[in-house]
Specification:
The chain has 417 residues and is α+β, with helices and mostly antiparallel strands. It is 38% helix and 13% strand.
Length: 417
């Protein structure tokens, strides 16, 4: 009995001490990467022989392999049939003698699938924009706006939104209230629009979409900007009528492009919206129309639309003949990104741009913009090399002949100077 028990115990010990020999092979070059340098530690297809207990966890292999090759343990991942985890053992994954485990740089996990389909959302919002049944807001737009060149000069008339009480908006709502009269740079006023309301184009929209997408409309449709006794004061006329009278310098196409962005967060005919589902749009947008859209986005405080229009102008419309027009528009419409890109383009193509007639004509209307152009050009001029200052007293020492005939001591600089 004792012999049988001892035999069984010895068999169990042998099973626990059983080893398996296998190879770890690099699937790709393995690098140690830092902020200043990158070093290749292991070349692809390099084999490393290993001997492990069948019941030993792979976490010990991961630490040993990384330490031996001078790599970070957390930068590597290992796989046999499946990806190996710290708690796995050769026995649990059925690893046999001569098998190969592959090692590579750890892959980033794949992003989860979106909870909603962006394509379906775009289609739904596009249909909502085209469905006028439940629209409760009306835009009155001039059918033929003036060209952008006539509205981009320095002498401009201003139009302002009037409140129902005849008073300007309350100062407490300045952050989200519509722009002041200084921001409305158009050629005509609302009175001219009301005199000829029959010729205006009607464009409808949903008030809930407008207020959700823009602080300008949220303030415009606010019911009470201030309370005086039992009466409401400072309420805009649009909050009661739900009618927005668009300045004559913006045509129907510009307003529709603006609404398309508010509803779908993109504009189908722009290059920056190339991921729009469905067939490509047959519509095109001219430079004048984009500058007008930039003007509208700046005036109505539509920051995302403004950023997209700036990117579109930089990406697809900037050249030697148009950069001056864009550069001058940045001053009127506070487009800092576009202004920076225009300056860089002008400096990179200095001779061609400054020699063009378009640049010279535009600078006549905006002479103050010549200063940043000159400053940007001056930054490219290399600094003149400074001449070394002559050390005083050397010639006198040579003439005196101190320390021997024909010899002079080198001057010692004053360390306290």
């Amino acid at each position: 009995m004792a012999n049988n028990a001892g035999g069984r115990q010895g068999g169990n010990n042998n099973q626990m001490n059983e080893h398996v020999e296998f190879t770890v092979r690099a699937e790709e070059d393995l690098y140690l990467t830092g902020s200043e340098n990158t070093i290749r530690r292991v070349q692809a297809d390099t084999n490393y022989s290993c001997l492990m207990l069948k019941t030993q966890r792979f976490s010990s292999l991961f630490r040993h392999y990384a330490k031996y090759h001078g790599l970070r343990k957390d930068d590597l991942e290992y796989f046999f049939v499946n990806m190996l985890e710290n708690e796995d053992t050769p026995e649990s994954v059925q690893l046999q003698r001569g098998d190969i485990i592959m090692v590579r740089k750890k892959r980033k996990p794949e992003p989860p699938e979106p909870a909603a389909n962006d394509t379906e959302f775009f289609v739904d919002m596009k249909e909502l924009l085209d469905d006028e049944e439940h629209m409760d807001t009306l835009f009155l737009v001039h059918p033929s706006p003036p060209s952008i060149s006539s509205a981009s000069g320095t002498n401009r008339k201003f139009a302002s939104i009037e409140s129902s009480s005849g008073q300007p908006p309350a100062s407490s709502a300045a952050k989200s209230s519509p722009p002041s009269s200084d921001d409305f740079k158009c050629e005509a006023s609302y009175e001219n629009m009301e005199d000829d309301s029959s010729a205006l184009v009607e464009i409808r929209a949903h008030k809930c979409v407008l207020t959700a997408r823009a602080d300008y409309f949220k303030a415009l449709f606010r019911k009470n900007l201030g309370v005086s006794g039992s009466q409401q004061s400072g309420t805009f006329r649009e909050s009661k009528e739900c009618v927005i009278r668009v300045e004559p310098c913006f045509g129907p196409k510009i307003v529709r492009l603006m609404l398309e962005f508010l509803y779908t967060n993109r504009i189908e005919c722009l290059k920056v919206s190339t991921r729009v589902p469905g067939p490509p749009s047959n519509h095109s947008v001219s430079l004048d129309e984009l500058l007008s859209l930039l003007h509208l986005a700046d005036m109505w405080q539509l920051r995302d639309l403004k950023r997209m229009v700036e990117h579109e102008l930089i990406r697809g419309y900037m050249n030697v003949n148009t950069v001056a027009r864009m550069f001058c528009a940045t001053d009127d419409f506070h487009a800092k990104r576009l202004q920076k890109s225009c300056l860089e383009f002008i400096v990179d193509n200095y001779r061609e741009v400054t020699g063009s007639v378009a640049f010279q004509e535009e600078m006549k209307h905006h002479p103050h913009l010549c200063i940043p152009v000159l400053k940007a050009a001056a930054d490219l001029i290399p600094e003149p090399a400074h001449k070394k200052q002559r050390t005083s007293g050397v010639n006198d020492m040579k003439e005196s002949g101190a320390g021997g005939v024909g010899m002079a001591s080198s001057p010692v600089p004053d360390s306290d100077a």
